[in-house]
Amino acid sequence: MTDHADGDGALFDVLAAEFLELPGVASARMFSHTGLTTCGAFFAFPSGQGELIVKLPADRVVQLIATGQANAMRLGRRTMREWAVITGDPTPGRIPDHHQHWRGLMVEAHAYVTELSSRRPRR
Q1: Is the CB of residue 102 less than 8 Å from the CB of residue 116?
Q2: Domain annotation for the chain: domains and CATH numbers
Q3: CA-based angle 12:16:20, to the nearest 5?
């Protein structure tokens, strides 16, 4: 899955391998990076700067930004309110285990996107 050279990209790859074992999870390209989908919708992908980008409920994204764990994701002038950019270097002392922190956020993102997909009308 690797298409990046940074250390946190390797962390994403390790975690992605775990998620790819779940039913319905696949890898696909998004914004020049290989990310993870469930039910055909993206829930996590790495940035080129060694960050994790996850789709979460807007209020959860606001919470992560307020506590300094994330930045808002922007595409041009537009802020993507359901996407959080998790920095590659969490605040020392506040997030003791980088690996577990990213895994937890990816679990949240997977659950959220799976729930959203289940609400979509079937064609």
Answers
A1: no
A2: 7-117 (3.30.1460)
A3: 175
For 13-37, write each residue's pLDDT tens digit: 999 999 999 999 999 987 778 899 9
Other C-beta atoms within 10 Å of 56: how many? 23
Cα angle: 98, vertex 24, 3; to 5 degrees: 50
First CA to last CA distance, the chain:
31
Tell me the one-letter amino acid at 15: L
pTM: 0.83
d(CA 107, CA 87): 17
Alpha helices in the chain (DSSP H): 7-19, 58-66, 98-119
The CA dihedral of 79, 45, 39, 122, to the nearest 10 degrees, is 20
